[in-house]
Design brief:
Strand 10 and strand 11 form a beta hairpin. This protein has 735 residues and is an alpha+beta fold. Helix content is 26%, strand content 24%. The strands form six sheets. It has a seven-stranded mixed beta sheet with strand order 3-5-1-13-10-11-12, sandwiched between helices. Strands 7, 8, 9, 14, 15 and 16 form a six-stranded mixed beta sheet that branches. Helix 6 packs across helix 7 and helix 10 runs parallel beside helix 18. Bound molecules: dioxothiomolybdenum(VI) ion (MOS).
């Protein structure tokens, strides 16, 4: 490692966009204005099924400042955007009279101010021919989709192993609908210039938004530009191209003015996805010594009647989490009259880990083996499906170090045996084997005559720290101080990038930046290849080191020259190179791609009379491969953990079973963890650089959430002797 690598990466730097954000200078889509811009406000369905019988828009059309009221009766036909490889885009809005969920958009009012549009929207009279909505998972009318993600797995013979097991744990776990609720309300600004469209959006995937808009309006992709340099959080809500994005562009085209459409918080509950509920059944078979002989895991979850399925493989953790010879996993979707769900931080794994890690806890008590010891005994030393060694795995270290840091071994093993006054004290833990993915990505890097680098890509930073870690990575690879590196993101005119999702952006974009930097250094070497004035002439990249704004010979670091000297001598303003990267395959490397791993340890205090639960402390030890910036990575884990505390104790999107209306669709009614719910969170990173990508990283974006709920639920069992198998664990369930 060079000096720069040690100082620039690892411990890390403050966020490069921190001051800008705190000062309100970072332009989010809601901050964008255009001359002559007008405002669109949505009208939502008041029924969950049936059809629109008629709309009287006359009062709204006559209201002051109103330019248009768009309904299914006058909306232009638009197409459904192209499939993404992960999911289909949601069906485009206002294309028919059918109602498939409560809150579906039935009209858009465009006016010269948001206030006037909001007022006029109240005067749009919508008449319905209501149907009988399908709202319960066990409603026999619901369509069933088996193996919706093609991820169901079978290994060995579960039925035989369960029949022969010394011990069988058979339990049902449920998790509720939850809503992503990024802080930034999603806003789209759309402006047409002839057939060219510019859209400012809160999206995790500008390229996906561009493709969907081009497909919807039948215009060439090159003519559509999507800008999302800053996004006020996503947690998955920004992965897809939602109907309001299409409606903003539709409205702008119809009134021939730039249009801003900002969702309200209640609209964020029905219009940008949510984490679907699950009903999971787990059967574990084991020997008396705790060795797992069978895992059978089935999950049923709702999806919308009008949409194809999101990737929400709830049971996959049971296929890869532990060394177990007999495994069956099954995911089942049932179609209901509910808003289209979407991935939410740690999709599938968040719910699946709750069931699996609680079931393992039940097994541990049943056979009298310590929960940490049980997991160590069943540790998957190689990938259980592929049989290949992991590209990296420090899960044993996560368990061992976490237990030590937490003081796990002081725990009295008997439930309800530790009291402090009126409080029952409980320790619980969970292991995490997270699924993540790297995707193909491109980046461009330049160095100019002032010795400044500019690195850019169409990727977004949704608050994760992408600007910062890419600045560090480019600085290290190009041998420049971080304050000489600028990173540009969130613009589809820049090199193509995947979604900021699946915890894969640092690996995806990092590998592309790594490649672009290497190509740029090569471009400098090519430039001086025959340059007799250059000490670097004829040198190959392997012989050269980038450091202090210079390219130096490894064999003689005093010998070399600066980027600036080279560019000046060749009378060039800058040099630019394009880089790209795609994930390797396990077969190429002979390695199984490892996700990040973690162990979580929670202490809870439960009021013995009132059932009130307080999380007292939570220790996370995480193997996420190489950590590029300990500060931003820790922030990711802490942010995810706060979400996990919400999942464990508070969060639940409640739908009225009679009408299909979400009854707690505000942040006043939908509870999330706030400061008072969050104790000190301890985060430690362990492990080695991963061998699957040249940067050595895995993902830290989502694993912070996964495993928190089972660790807390297991601690509640230890405190109280009450096994609550249904999230969130609210006090009514403990009374
Ligand atoms: Mo994440 S749910 O992949 O944004």
């Amino acid at each position: 490692m060079t000096t720069i690598e040690r100082t620039v990466l690892g411990a890390g730097i403050d966020r490069v966009d921190g001051a800008q954000k705190v000062a309100g200078r970072a332009p989010y889509s809601a901050d964008v204005t255009y001359p002559g811009m007008v405002h669109a406000v949505l009208v939502r369905s008041a029924v969950a099924a049936g059809a629109i019988a008629g709309i009287d828009a006359s009062a709204a059309e006559g209201a002051p400042g109103v330019l248009a009221v768009i309904t299914p009766y006058n909306a232009p036909r638009v197409a459904r955007g192209p499939d993404s490889g992960f999911w289909r885009q949601p069906p485009p809005p206002l294309q028919g009279l059918d109602i498939v969920h409560h809150g579906q958009y039935v009209a858009v009012v465009v006016a010269d101010s948001r206030e006037r549009a909001t007022d006029a929207a109240r005067h749009v009279a919508v008449f319905y021919r209501p149907g009988e909505p399908i709202l319960a998972l066990d409603d026999p009318r619901a369509e069933t989709v088996r193996d919706p993600f093609g991820s169901d797995q079978t290994r060995g013979d579960c039925a035989a192993a369960l029949a022969a097991a010394d011990v069988v744990i058979d339990a049902q776990y449920t998790t509720p609908d939850e809503t992503n609720n990024p802080m930034g309300l999603f806003t789209t600004v759309a402006a047409w210039d002839g057939e060219r469209l510019t859209v400012h959006d809160a999206t995790q995937w500008p390229a996906g938004t561009r493709a969907a808009l081009a497909g919807a309006f039948g215009v060439p992709e090159e003519g559509v530009r999507v800008l999302a340099p800053y996004v006020g959080g996503g947690f998955g809500a920004g992965l897809r191209v939602w109907p309001h994005v299409i409606l903003a562009a539709m409205a702008a085209r119809m009134v021939d003015r730039p249009v801003k459409l900002g969702l309200t918080r209640p609209q964020m509950f029905t219009g940008v996805g949510h984490r679907p509920a699950t009903v999971q059944r787990i059967r574990l078979g084991a020997r008396r010594d705790g060795m797992l002989t069978a895992i059978e895991h089935e999950s049923v979850q709702p999806s919308a009647v009008n949409d194809d399925n999101i990737v929400e493989a709830v049971t996959q953790v049971s296929a890869v989490g532990y060394a177990c010879p007999n495994v069956t996993t099954r995911d089942i979707v049932r179609r209901l009259n509910v808003p289209v769900p979407t991935s939410m931080r740690g999709p599938g794994d968040a719910q699946g880990h709750f069931a699996l890690e609680c079931a393992l806890d039940e097994l541990a008590y049943e056979i009298g083996v310590d929960p940490v010891e049980l997991r160590l005994r069943n540790h998957a030393d190689v990938h259980p499906g592929l049989g290949l060694p992991w590209s990296s795995k420090a899960l044993r270290e996560c368990y061992e170090l976490g237990a030590e840091q937490f003081g796990w071994w002081d725990r009295h093993p008997t439930p309800r045996a530790t009291r402090r006054g009126d409080l029952l004290v409980g320790y619980g833990m969970a292991g995490v084997s997270f699924f993540w993915f790297q995707q193909p990505c491109a980046a461009r890097a330049s160095v100019d005559r002032e010795g400044r680098a500019f690195v850019r890509s169409a990727a977004t930073d949704i608050g994760t720290g992408t600007y910062t870690v890419m600045t560090q990575l480019a600085a290290e690879r190009l041998g420049l101080p971080v304050d000489r590196v600028r990173v540009g993101l969130g613009d589809t005119d820049l090199p193509r990038a995947p979604m900021q999702g699946g915890s894969g952006m640092t690996a995806s974009l990092g590998s592309a930046v790594h490649d672009a930097a290497a190509k740029l250094i090569q471009a400098f070497l090519d430039l001086v290849a025959g340059d007799i004035a250059s000490p670097l002439r004829g040198r190959r990249a392997e012989e050269v080191l980038a450091e202090d704004g210079r390219l130096r010979l490894r064999s003689d670091p005093a010998c070399g020259e600066s980027y600036r000297e080279i560019l000046e001598r060749h009378d060039l303003a800058e040099l630019t190179a394009d880089g790209s990267a795609a994930p390797a395959t396990p077969q190429e490397l002979g390695l199984a791609p490892a996700g990040p791993f973690a162990a979580r340890f929670a202490e809870v205090h439960v009021d013995a009379d009132l059932g009130r639960v307080r999380l007292a402390r939570l220790v996370s030890v995480v193997d996420a491969g190489r950590i590029l910036n300990a500060k931003t990575a820790r922030s990711q884990i802490i942010g995810g953990t706060v979400g996990g505390i919400g999942m464990a104790l508070l969060e639940e999107t409640v739908t009225d079973p009679a009408t299909g209306r979400i009854v707690n669709g505000t942040l006043g009614d939908y509870l999330v963890a706030v400061n008072a719910d969050v104790p000190d969170l301890d985060v430690t990173f362990v492990g080695e650089p991963d061998r699957f990508n040249p940067v050595g990283v895995k993902g830290v974006g989502e694993i912070g959430l996964v495993g928190v709920a089972p660790a807390i639920a297991n601690a509640i069992f230890h405190a109280t002797g009450r096994r609550i198998r249904s999230l969130p664990v609210t006090l009514d369930k403990l009374l």
